[in-house]
Specification:
Number of domains of chain B: 1
Oligomer: heterodimer
Shape of chain B: globular
Number of strands of chain B: 7
Number of helices of chain B: 8
CATH superfamily of chain B: Spore Coat Polysaccharide Biosynthesis Protein SpsA, Chain A
Radius of gyration of chain A: 24 Å
Largest sheet of chain A: none
CATH topology of chain B: Spore Coat Polysaccharide Biosynthesis Protein SpsA, Chain A
Distance between the termini of chain B: 39 Å
Number of strands of chain A: 0
CATH class of chain B: Alpha Beta
Number of domains of chain A: 1
Structural class of chain B: alpha/beta
Number of helices of chain A: 4
Shape of chain A: elongated
Chain lengths: ~120, ~240
């Protein structure tokens, strides 16, 4: 049971690593936004291959079952990644709003200038 | 071109208001002859822009949909850049009577307050509204009372006038989604003052409100969070100073 779960986790981590690397190579994800995913995948890969480390972490968390500890760690890692992206998204939204307002104001000024110019 | 002292711009945020915005612009121009009317188009999918221009307004067209707060702030930013001393916002759905604009302007000029709210509840017959919205307004009156240190009758009114000091503040800090209530807190944190003057409310000239009961509940949660975040932000900054 435990071995199968760790094998699945290894497979998923490798698949995630490959997916992120391919996406970066094809410019679907920018390098700076791929780092969180790569770190998350590397942590999961490490935990799924190092049984001793996983058992130590389970003991540290006070969880008797190593698979449960692994799920808790997976959940926490992805929660942190999602939080980081929420922060990035919020900054992007602020910038996008400010930029849209600036574009609209500049277009307004341009239009006013064109209307003031005599016909040529 | 230098503006006269006490210059006024009327701004009309609009999103898909082709059926009403023309009447609103004409009403404002008839009441306030010579005053510049700016319709801020929040990337409407209908003929709002052409109807507004045809009625005699200038149009500030946003390149993509920003929501009410972002739309109003764009108008404030332009008015500030152009050097206006007073800006009055009326909604594009025709619910605010342009005949009340002089009263709001007069209060802005004489009261010493930085913001004047055209209040639907400060006198006369209160408007008919859904029970959820009515409950929301009562709830926010209670929440805002201790924060503002004084009662506010109509915290969700979109009929608002600001002077240049408030304009300058709002170009830097203005809530993006549901601005009215949070804007009051932003003002209060700067020790600015506001005043309510009674104003009429009319039925929408066209279209239907998109605010459903579920959206009203989302609005309450969103605004409540925004109010407390504003307070925490201000307190944090004050402690650092």
């Amino acid at each position: 049971m435990m071995d199968r779960l760790l094998m699945v986790m290894t497979g998923l981590s490798v698949a995630l690593l490959a997916l992120v690397l391919v996406s970066v190579r094809r410019a679907h994800i920018r390098v700076e936004y791929s780092v969180s995913w790569l770190v998350a995948a590397a942590v999961l890969l490490g935990l799924s291959r190092m049984h001793g480390l996983l058992a130590w972490m389970a003991a540290l968390l006070g969880v008797e079952s190593a698979p449960l500890a692994l799920l808790m760690i997976v959940f926490s890692v992805f929660l942190m990644v999602f939080f980081r992206f929420s922060v990035i998204l919020s900054h992007l939204k602020d910038h996008s709003v400010a930029l849209a307002q600036r574009v609209a104001i500049l277009e307004f000024h341009l239009r006013s200038l064109h209307e003031k110019e005599p016909d040529q | 071109m230098a503006l006269e002292a006490g210059s006024l711009m009327v701004i009309v945020p609009a999103y898909n208001e082709a059926g009403a915005v023309g009447e609103v612009v004409r009403g404002v121009r008839e009441t306030m002859a010579g005053v510049r009317v700016l319709v801020i188009d929040d990337c409407s999918e209908d003929a709002t822009v052409s109807v507004a221009r045809h009625a005699g307004a200038e149009v500030l067209g946003l390149p993509h949909h920003l929501g009410l707060g972002g739309c109003v702030q764009a108008g404030y930013k332009l008015a500030f850049e152009l050097g206006y001393d007073y800006v009055i916002r009326v909604d594009g759905d025709g619910q605010h009577a342009p005949q009340d604009i002089p009263r709001v302007l007069d209060a802005l000029k004489t009261s010493g307050c930085q913001m004047v709210i055209g209040s639907r509840y400060a006198g006369g017959t209160p408007p008919r509204t859904s029970w959820v919205r009515g409950l929301g307004i009562r709830f926010f009156r209670l929440v805002l009372r201790p924060i503002l240190g004084r009662p506010v009758h109509d915290p969700t009114s979109g009929f608002v006038g600001v002077n240049r000091a408030a304009l300058e503040l709002f170009t830097r800090s203005f809530p993006l989604e549901y601005p009215e209530i949070e804007a009051l807190v932003v003002l209060q944190r700067k020790s600015f003052r506001f005043l309510e003057v009674p104003c009429q409310t009319r039925p929408r000239l066209a279209g239907q409100s998109t605010i459903t009961a579920l959206k009203s509940l989302y609005y309450i949660v969103h605004v409540l969070l925004g109010v407390f975040v504003n307070i925490l932000k201000y307190e944090g900054r004050r402690r650092r100073q």
